[in-house]
Amino acid sequence: MKTALWVAHVHVTDAEAYGKYAALATGAITDHGGVFLARGGAYETLEGPDRPRNVVARFPSMQAAHDCYYSDAYQAALSHAKGAAQRELSIIEEL
Q1: CA torsion 39→44→49→50, rounded to 10°?
Q2: Domain ranges of the chain
Q3: Longest dimension (CA), the chain
Q4: Contact 10, 71 (CB under 8 A)
Q5: Taking the CB of the first residue and of the last residue of the chain, which one, N or C, has fewer CB atoms within 10 A?
Q6: What angle do the packed helices 15-31 and 72-81 form, to 10 degrees?
Q7: How high is the pLDDT of residue 1?
Q8: How far is Cα 89 from Cα 91, in angstroms, rounded to an integer?
Q9: How far apart are the first and last CA of the chain?
């Protein structure tokens, strides 16, 4: 079974609310087998909109990544991110 990545590009507009999201999302992600490969840190935007927070998490499968996003725990976390950030999030199957 191929693993999958969550790739998120984020511009935080409300650090306090987004901090609540990040704290809750961490548990939901790890509960679904997710492992963080990048979370913040140095970056260089070469194309597209600049999003200073970049996160990559590996999941055991596309299904696990999908299930995590739609889980009650992640959706509860996500409620804190709405209005607190501009985000793009994709699930990508690894080779």
Answers
A1: 60
A2: 4-41+52-93
A3: 38
A4: no
A5: C
A6: 160
A7: 87
A8: 7
A9: 10
pTM of this prediction? 0.92
Using the structure block, give the residue that is written with the tokens 């793009």. Answer: 88
Chosen CATH of 4-41+52-93 out of 3.30.70.100, 3.40.50.300, 3.30.365.10, 3.40.50.970: 3.30.70.100
pLDDT tens per residue, range 53-82:
999 999 999 999 999 999 999 999 999 999
Q: What local confidence, expressed as pLDDT, does residue 46 receive? A: 96
